[in-house]
Write the structure tokens for this entry.
Amino acid sequence: MRFINPKTDYAFKKIFGSAESKNILKSFLNALIYEGEPVISDLEIINPNLPPKLQGLKDTYLDVKAELSDGTIVIIEMQVLNVQSFGKRVLFNAAKTYAFQLQSGEGYRMLKPVIALTLTDFEMFSGREHYVSRFIYREKTDSFIYPENDIELVFIELPKFTKELNQLETITDKWIYFIKSARSLTEIPDNMDNIPELNQAFVIANQANLTREELEDIERREMFIYDQQGAVALAREEGREEEKRAIARNLLSQLDDNAIAQITGLSLEAVQGLRQEFSD
């Protein structure tokens, strides 16, 4: 077996947002939002991408959107690239979803809670070890929870999840592992095969069940992601190289070339070139 990459937008929507995905999404949300407890008894998958209701307001682009049986709205986004101001975009989408529930003439009492579940293929919060983070409104000094705490942000940082297949214990572990590693698997793991919703997700993700057009589209999307990740990595590397050169320039009048090369990590030839530029 070969599986499509759940981290691509097309594959994520196909697995979690299609007509046959209701039970899959329910299990997935119970695992990631409610730590595996069967809190969600029922839900409805709805169109996630709705035009703005006010002129000049940005469109909202999400991967999956669902309304739970208690009226809570869950918006879900799988983000592979760490784009500028992404954290603000998450907050904007959650606030917009909350605000525009009301129709003309309806009172604020009609507002239902919104949960924004965001999975990232990069670290959102550097220096924080936990791969699951939950944010709600709290009072600054004593952490008193705001009574109308209707917006919750939940983040799953995939790079921080490092458990191997034989270390998976909870259904939360297994769903995160599925998202992160399904693309590299060649069969449904034994410790996941007994969970019907996970099994069904693997069936949908099985390349054998997709058309040639679907596979070609997914491949193009993956290549675009890899190209963008490569461009970001290159930019960062070039930035680090320029930072090294700047440090070396400041040391030219204080140390010899060998010492500067050892301190900055630049080659001796690069340091000698900088010294030549400085002397010119």
